């Protein structure tokens, strides 16, 4: 019976391919794990980016909404203020009409009757009249810059959205029109805040 002799070097050489295969498997597994981790990190990054973009969009919408609400609140406050000034504006308008009707050289005599008819007195009254008219016009101009405008109703077709008819003249035929303005109406930035109080009659042909 012959004895076989084992060569250690040959055995080691035969074992090398097995170790190489194991090493390659480990590298492949590690690479797969790294790729998986990268994919997960990228997914988390994309999710965070989406959340950040959504928060940014929500914040921008919030700022726009707050700006609209503040603007609306200011406009409502201005509207209430201007509406509260309309009765005073009516009084100024009446005073303006009265003073403008006194145009002319002899107009101030109506103010100084019984107090003499000196030229100095008439000049002083005329000065007062001019000052009051200037103040009224400045007030009207100032309010106009805030968007308040008169409704020019006289001679226009009757419009219930802008005119409040309190008197009617049924004489004659024709389309209903404003024949007299009893109280001026106003718009604020195109919105009617007080309709003109008018007398309605047939339009003159």
Shape: elongated
Oligomer: single chain
Number of DSSP strand runs: 6
Quote the average pLDDT: 80
Percent strand equals 15-25%
Helix tally equals 3
Amino-to-carboxy terminus distance? 147 Å
Major sheet, described briefly?
3 strands, antiparallel
Query: What would you call the structural class?
Result: alpha+beta
Radius of gyration: 46 Å
Low-confidence residue ranges: none
Order of helices and strands: HHHEEEEEE
Give me the side-by-side strand order of the main sheet: 1-4-5
Give the proportion of residues in helices: 55-70%
Which features would summarize this protein structure in a list?
single chain, 205 residues, alpha+beta, Nucleotide Exchange Factor Grpe, Chain A, domain 2, 3-stranded antiparallel beta sheet, 3-stranded mixed beta sheet, 3 helices, 6 strands, 16% strand, elongated
In brief, what are we looking at here?
The protein is of the alpha+beta class.
What topology does this entry show?
Blueprint: H1 8-100, H2 109-112, H3 119-145, E1 148-151, E2 163-168, E3 176-183, E4 185-188, E5 191-194, E6 196-202
Helix pairs in contact: 1-3
